[in-house]
Design goal:
periplasm, Immunoglobulin-like, single chain, Ig-like_fold, signal, Pili_assmbl_chaperone_CS, Gram-negative pili assembly chaperone domain protein, 2 domains, 1 helix, about 50% strand, five-stranded antiparallel beta sheet, mainly beta, seven-stranded mixed beta sheet
Length: about 250
Amino acid sequence: MITRIPIINKIVLFTSLFMISTSLYASVIINGTRVIYNESSKSKTVQLVNENKWPALVQVWLDNGDPSELPENIKTPFSITPPIFKMSPDSGQNLRITYLGSNLPKDKESIFYLNVLEIPPESEDSVSLDKNTMQIAIRSRIKLLYRPIGIKMPSQINEKLSFSIKRTNKGNEVLVKNNSPWYITFQNVELSLGNKKLDLVENMVAPFSEIYLMRDNGTAIPNDFINAKKINYSIINDYGGLDSFESNL
């Protein structure tokens, strides 16, 4: 996920920036769409690349799931170095994430989020004319999944899922039960009823928990689909790719 943050004047206040969702593309790129941190690892390295032709100031931090929380108010059982640094044009930078030890669950994954905030340089004109200017800072945010010893890489994950159509106070919805120790992120979810298809919202379900899925437009599932027998879906794997499955309802 990428957000942009307006920066007014020449002083960058990292911890008091207001975050606005946008489709703007980052130039400081995280190598990978998620970080898998195995408990057996001493640390985890994440590579960043600055694809711009100009330098960038970068701040990185981890959060517990609230994207609006200020970095100085966040406590996680990890350290990340370096926390603030400058990247030259067309250069790379390695981040080192280290688990500090905590009472995280041993029977399931825990989720955190890696944030990378990119601050572009001021233009020479604004500096020379001593002008107040607005810059756009871009934040990228990806999942970090902590995987305890004893929990292997996901396999046959579809066998740990069950699907059924239920009537709720919102209308017809698909109940998804996750009987696995993994966080499962769905994409391309659709109900099948003969030759008819119905797209459902993409979502993530936590370990040993359940969620309800509606249509991708936020409305309930039509009554004529309550007799659907199949659901097709893709799951994002450890490498950021998609594994596709079909399950019975």
